[in-house]
Amino acid sequence: MYNGRTVPIIVDGRPFLTYKEASRYLLSLAQDEREKAYLEMRSAAALGSGIEE
Fold it and tell me: Residue 39, Cα to own-chain centre: how many angstroms?
């Protein structure tokens, strides 16, 4: 999801370019919030843009 990414994945108004950044952020969240943020990251990665509309 993050290998070679040049456009960040945006979740909760925060940009993530690397797996390490995203992982740290996810681990700082409560379980329910973590699951929601993870699903948002996956969706953004699938769309390829990382830009919220």
Answer: 8
Q: Does pTM surpass 0.85? A: no
CA distance linking residue 27 with residue 47, whole number of Å:
24
CA atoms within 13 A on the CB side of 28: 6
Residue 7: phi and psi, rounded to 5, are -105, 125
- Are the C-beta atoms of residues 9 and 22 closer than 8 Å to each other? yes
Cβ–Cβ < 8 Å for 25, 37: yes
Cα angle: 34, vertex 50, 46; to 5 degrees: 80
pLDDT level of residue 37 (50, 70, 90 thresholds): very high
Say whether 11 sits in a helix, a strand or coil.
Answer: strand
